[in-house]
Amino acid sequence: MAATIKDVAREAGVAVCTVSFAMNGSAHVAEATKKRIFGAVERLNYRPNQSARGLVTKKTNNIGLAVAETADGLENGILLEVIQGLGRAASHKNYDLLLSFQKQQTDKPDEHLLDVYRKQSADGLILMGNKMSERPYKDLLTNRFPFVLLGRPYKDNLCHSVNADNEQGGYLAAQFLLKKGHRRIGFITPCSLEFDAAIDRLNGYKRALTEFDIEVDEKLIALGSFEPDSGYQETETLLSLKDRPSAIIAGRDVIAARVNEKAVTLGYQVPDDLAIVGFDNTIVAQLARPGITSVELPMLTMGHEAGKLLISLIEGDIEYDAIQKISLPCGIFERDTT
Amino acid sequence: MAATIKDVAREAGVAVCTVSFAMNGSAHVAEATKKRIFGAVERLNYRPNQSARGLVTKKTNNIGLAVAETADGLENGILLEVIQGLGRAASHKNYDLLLSFQKQQTDKPDEHLLDVYRKQSADGLILMGNKMSERPYKDLLTNRFPFVLLGRPYKDNLCHSVNADNEQGGYLAAQFLLKKGHRRIGFITPCSLEFDAAIDRLNGYKRALTEFDIEVDEKLIALGSFEPDSGYQETETLLSLKDRPSAIIAGRDVIAARVNEKAVTLGYQVPDDLAIVGFDNTIVAQLARPGITSVELPMLTMGHEAGKLLISLIEGDIEYDAIQKISLPCGIFERDTT
DNA sequence: CTTGATTATGCAAGCGCTGTCAATACTAAT
DNA sequence: ATTAGTATTGACAGCGCTTGCATAATCAAG
Q1: Which of the following CATH numbers is that of domain B166-296: 3.40.630.30, 3.40.50.2300, 3.30.365.10, 3.40.50.880?
Q2: Which residues from 10-39 of B have any strand D atom under 7 Å from their CB?
Q3: Which nucleotide minimizes the distance between its C1' and the CA of B53?
Q4: What CATH number is given for A5-48 in this structure?
Q5: Residue A73 confidence (pLDDT) above 60
Q6: Which residues form the HTH lacI-type domain (chains A, B) (predicted)?
Q7: Residue B220 has what DSSP assignment?
């Protein structure tokens, strides 16, 4: 059906290996013959069969993306923007993205994530947001298979990883408010403190305060949860403090939206009586009225950097053992709530 | 490095072909030997090499998803939910999803989308939201390569396609309001009428009116654009009509949000003075305050159905020429604006 | 013991490509 | 003309797997 390398060779009147050489640049081919060959390629719409090529070169030119699916949709953090960044890095270097979705109802979900690797249908793997047991990592590591952790810190220095600098993000949010003169700043964590992102953001907040010589007041720190509506309660608690905060940093935009609502309900003016800063700069922050000032995680960049890193690893531009831990700075988008 | 079928055969003490038979069910293998083989597979963590297998079977077990990237992000319509639905269908049948991103700055962008097909690295293709010239389709069609159009109507009956039933969606929105007693209903199109989705939604709206014996008043139909802020102007226009509408259907949620804002600004009470229905049931409708009643496009289902359809095509369960045009009904989510 | 069915085997071809080898053709410089 | 270098060639092995074929081992039933 599809043209093979033989067809191209015949069409161009050259030997099969000459075509291969010309296409891969693996040996000198005279300009004139090259032209004839590429002409034939064009005419026949020829592309080397990936399976055949992969079989001999042991390269697929695919980047695997292990996607864990939970009952309530995709695992947190699988964001379109990340995929987009990944795709950009990939296409630039002639890779495709292979999304392998975890099988539902399986006894060992995390083992499944590695099937792409076992089948050898990708040259490297991006692991994001997946809770995985220890074993698969070991497997990858001992076989020196390229992989990058994305948005999923692995505290030891064993794996390459790309992350948003959540600490700096927390710092940024607090610093932003401090510079505006706020001195009592509440903080609602994005989720429980089991999650590194939550801890880091909080730590950044504390660092900013310390830098401004303000003592951290634990009463100003409220524990948020994955349930955005918990934001209502936290806001009420924070605002009913005798020395109430003049600003609240919410660990996520959806929580920030709740903070705003509650504040309005309680009769506060935003931003005059209460300033609010959210996190993640999602569409929620963008479209809420008032628009919510929000710390932006560099999702696109994260995907892009992870892709570039992985490809460097695959192509040997970076030593497998020279562990890279890339931490990307957050930005802040000012809107109406500050 | 990775175990091969030979290793498994040795480990299990059987012949290579027996392993192959056992794994593919292509011949009878006694239970006892099967057990030995799968034991060895388990121990060695063996998975058949995809490239090798693909080379001989001419199957990759990949579904290609051609992703066109424009300057301002991914082409409209590439939605995470769609990918998720696709992934669900794929993983169910042991396929992976191969995302191939269009190369930037290339002279023939649409030709590039077919590279996955030309390289034979996918067994079928999902085409969504890509403006493509005629030729690539022809190419696919004449070679009888399986592909389905997703969310991108191709009016002739040449291609398999999956779509939201926009006409029914428009009908639903109008019917919903009519049942609540509204008789003057404004309609702001989601974009210009070059787009089928816009026409269909509008037609559905008209059909509902007709069914309720209400004459369509062209003055109540405003042309929206891709720029959500245009919603402000349209709203003002519609509300300043001498016989103003008591409800407005906005072609997209973001427009609906603008309609609401403007209405409030002009001193109308929502939903009492003005009811609003949006489209797409995005997070915007969900999180806006007041929450926007919105017509939901079955994105997840669309992805899922498209995946299933494509796989049926690939596996020959459906004739290539028995064109299927799947149109999936929209639902409506009532919130505070009605 | 024979027969027939079932199960397992070795062998070999071949999928489309890469890349090595040794040989040949061509070109340009000495 | 000789030499050196470059460009191109055919032949072929091999990547890991599937599959057809013919053969052989195994076993139950007649």
Answers
A1: 3.40.50.2300
A2: 16-17, 19-21, 23-24, 26
A3: D17
A4: 1.10.260.40
A5: no
A6: 3-57
A7: G
